[in-house]
Amino acid sequence: MFTETAIKELEETKTRYPDSKAALLPALYIAQKEFGWLGTEAYEVISTTLGIPKATVRGVGTFYSMFKHKPMGRNLIRICTNVSCMLLGSEKVVNFLRHKYGLEDGFTTPDNRFSLVIMECIGACAMGPAMLVNDDLYGNLTEKTIEEIFSQYR
Amino acid sequence: METFLLKDIDNPNSTNINFYINNQGGYQSLQKALSMAPADVIDMARKANLRGRGGVGFSAGMKWYFCSLNKEVSPKYLIANADEGEPGTFKDRAILEKRPHLLIEGMIIAGYSFGAEYGYIYLRGEYPKAKEILNKAIKEAYSKGYLGDNILGKGIRFHITVHQGAGAYICGEASTLLESLEGRRGHPRIPYYRLANVGAWGKPTIVNNIETLSNMPLIIKIGPEEYTKIGPSNSPGPKLYSISGHVNKPGLYELSMGTTLQELIYTHAGGIKGNKKLKAVIPGGISTAVLPPDKIDCAMDFDSMKKAGSWLGTGAVIVMDETTCMVRVLWRELKFYEHESCGKCVPCREGSGWLRNIVERIENGEGRGDDIELIPDIIDNIRDKTFCPLADGIVTSVESTLSHFKNEFEDHIKNKECRVVNA
To answer: What is the pTM of this model?
Structure first.
């Protein structure tokens, strides 16, 4: 079930569109915040609240790459490996994350501290290689700066 | 050159409405526009030759004019396309995060011109900070009476909502964006109707790029005559260029339209890192044709870039030095297309994967003798056989890379390894 705050947020969101079905993407975001990830329970709640078939909700949810379809760690690392970042060494950074932290694309560390998702362009091309840790953007990554940045996320 | 779009972006108050009004003359263009007839506002955009900054370069004024012809239909919608996903591009981010009121003012003016009552900012999911900033700015604009049911007491209605995307490149395409806005998977629509007639929820809809809309306050302020003096008259105005890759000073530069690639790279971006030689430039995001070094004296505007054999695209310049392996770059581009193809059209969905597979094995030293002949064959099965322009990006990337750097592909196959030093 959604908490009262989430229901309120969703009801308010619905009023912003001529058709409440348009609130599906916002609802998926709200559900992801509520449940931490999108699973059967999240899809069922959205389906009932918005009156959209569960299969459609799931179909939309799985289309977009920023939704999580399994439980993930406390901190989500999204690293860009597209052309601009690649030219500046993002492959080295990905290798470093693999060797130092055991992180692979889509994996979570056993202590549940970090999950890694390899992304397409995150619009930080002038400061490549770049990554998002949760909502915070970091650029010009090197092995040293990564260790410093990670120490802030427990 | 005096900056307009990026004015005062280093000032910590740049997102504040009072700063925008008191220090930058903000919302004065809106007041001026609202004192004009809507048709005159459209006329100004047409006379100023304001062309869409998303890449196509279609006249914004013409779009609004088409939409304004739907007099009996309401409501109409204005969508600000902030799904800036073209790799290499980070121009709209600066406006969204540093100058939200410039965009909001531009949206209200554009909406007024063709009679839109509702505006949506379709914001890419990768910009979470921009969402907070925009929502705060929208709230401020409501409290000052610039948004609402009776804007500045003139009986004009315009509302803005931020709609957050969730990581799909394809949603930057206008009809796909509308699908996503309506709460569906990001699949393009059949281009049977003009969106200006049948768009969001079946109503007349205009989708404009963030930078395009943000030019409107300037056009109203200085007038079309002065505006067309900035850059070449057939595609005038200030332009944001995002420069990344092997340059000394990568970043975002506001210059006049028509600045040459040469000047951009060597004067503004400080030249190639470590004094290395230039090997290739992608001028407008990865779906535009890659150019060899002897083509960089061309002007960056819609028409000149076309003549040079590429596109202005989003003005996202990716610079590659001599240590770059072009096979690897193409492989990375194809991996991107394969991931971002929405899956609706078979030629794009299957073709991107096939091509990635072939280029991957060439890069890994496992290329086969006839691989280079196989590629154009697959390309022919993709070209013009899809609903939306994503597949055109695949065709352009592959063909331009092969036409300028075919020898690198041949070397990879002959030597059974990548001999280019990759940084």
So the answer is: 0.96
